[in-house]
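Hi R.,

Here's the input for the iron/sulfur cluster complex you asked about:
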Amino acid sequence: MLELIQKLYLKNDLTKDEIIYLLKNRNTEHEEKLFNYAVQTKKRYYGNSVFLRGLVEFSNICKQDCLYCGIRVSNQAAQRYRLTPDEIIDCCNTGYDLGYRTFVLQSGEDFWYTEEKLVSIVRRIKKLFPDAALTLSIGERDAEVYQNLFQAGADRFLLRHETASRGAL
Ligand code: SF4
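And here is the predicted structure with iron/sulfur cluster in place:
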């Protein structure tokens, strides 16, 4: 078991069977070893620094219906909101004054924010805060839209792939 944990640490890889074995047979000693390795890995890349990002959740409206998600379209109980472009800029302003130099604009898949609106928001943010990095997390768009957002100044894009069914591929 400890050999498996060490292999995971050194190679960052285990077979499916090894992962299942590890999950089914772990004890407190194994978990401590895992946590220690996790801490060593974190320190190797980030030391003891903490990196803060200014996250602006600018809309919780989403056209998708992922079952695990609190803001999925069919959840009638969710109280919906949407920030205007000016309100988004205000949030960045506040964050910048507080010392943030990375902003993440995050929303559901809300197509009220057209490509044109998003490009305009990105341009305004990069003009006002040229030394701040900007990440977008707004769901699926066409490749052309991603390209235009990049050209407008977006530095990074966060797109999560949670699960997939092999049969649907
Ligand atoms: S696309 Fe994202 S925000 Fe929308 S329902 Fe799925 S997980 Fe939630």
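One thing worth noting: The CA atoms of residues 119 and 149 lie 6 Å apart.

Cheers,
M.
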